Amino acid sequence: MLSTVLVVDDDPIHRALLERIVTRLGYEVRLAVSGEDALTLLTGSEASGIDAVLLDLVMPDLDGLGVLHRLRSIGSMIPVITMVTSAGVDGVMGAISAGATDFVIKPVGPERLQVSLMNALRFKSLTAGIESEHHLSSEFLTLDQLTNVDPAIARLTINSGKALKGDWPVLIEGEDGVGKKQFARAIHGSSPRSKKLFVSLDCSALPPTESIARLEAAITRVKSGTLYLSSINALDLAAQSMLAKTIMLADPSSKSPRLIASSRTSLIDLARSGVFREDLFYRLTVTPLRIPPLRERPFDLAALAERMALRFASESGKNIRGLTHGAVEYLMKQTWPGNHPEFEATLRLAVQRASTPWLTDADFDGEMAFEKTPSVQDFKNETLALFDSTGALRPFAEIESEIFEMAQRHCGGSLGKAAKALGLGRSTLYRKFQEKDLAGQSQKIEMLGDAA
What we know:
- The structure is a single chain.
- By secondary structure, the protein is of the alpha/beta class.
- It folds into four domains: about 5-130, Rossmann fold (3-Layer(aba) Sandwich), CATH 3.40.50.2300; about 145-290, Rossmann fold (3-Layer(aba) Sandwich); about 295-365, Helicase, Ruva Protein, domain 3 (Orthogonal Bundle), CATH 1.10.8.60; about 375-440, Orthogonal Bundle (Arc Repressor Mutant, subunit A).
- Helix content is about 45%, strand content about 10%.
- A five-stranded parallel sheet has the order 2-1-3-4-5. Strands 7-8-9-6-10 form a five-stranded parallel sheet, with helices on both faces.
- The chain is globular.
């Protein structure tokens, strides 16, 4: 289906010329003779059929700048290319600030117009992907939604599509932060079991004295839904034995639970060393999948960054259209030890800093979301003072703030680990950081939660 371009110009000669050029470039054309006429089309029932706008800035009554302000005030994100004469170039920056995607100078050449329209329609496509990004935080998730925003998941899904639709166990391996739980949820959401329970159990948090009972309770509760065992590499041998007997007794069927497990380390190495049962390992690896870390996917980063930047811009009401070549090069040079949480936190911070519609390498200048966890030796001489330099007791709020900062540094910048070490809820600690005007630091770390 051809994309439709709305041409808005009060000059009938220039309007007719543009209609011929845009048609020859392969697009459908709609015409508007004034700013009011354009707004009627762009806010009415036919608005969804218009993909881009060519807008003259200088028109009587409601000019192009007025149209832009009205469109953005109602939340319209349709790409708009403004048209000016060489004498009116001074007004371009005002149009860009008001939300214009690009500008061209009259008389417009076909080649220049084609480039602008292609970029504008690409921006519209990326903006439409924001809705898919928002789905990723919901409880219900499908593989289609996930593959739309992550090329690595798309490749995994293509390679293992048939296996993912069956009832056999699935093993997902990958480092912390690559999105293993999200992938497991998407497999469940795309399966015939999607309307049944998805029960998640973190094996690393199971005390050995309770592991078997908790595992049995989860299996009973999930019935014919999906049981997701994260960090199965941490499951003790007694619980492994119980699980092996359970899933070995019957062939997979739609009436029994489907098992999806994840591991942050290689299970085959653990099995060879005797830490993990070999029979359970072989049963789990009917459908083995590995999600690669970001450092192994440098050519995916540009697409991921563009989608995230547009989503964060949408959430904060900022006019961001993409990343410059320098910004993409900067992202590709990083190793991203924190994977997706670090990458997303860094993008969010860059969007908040940005002063232009295009993110540059300066917006990322030296700000990394995660650092290597310090050793105990790094803190052995660090103390917390109860008294100030005059001998007076320091205010509690000041001491509390310093405790939070020290805990954060001690945990390598991880807010979740700091909260756990202090015996606080993660949301409580984050709120306290905000109250102490430390949001600049807290935004850099795990802003989107722990992606298992």
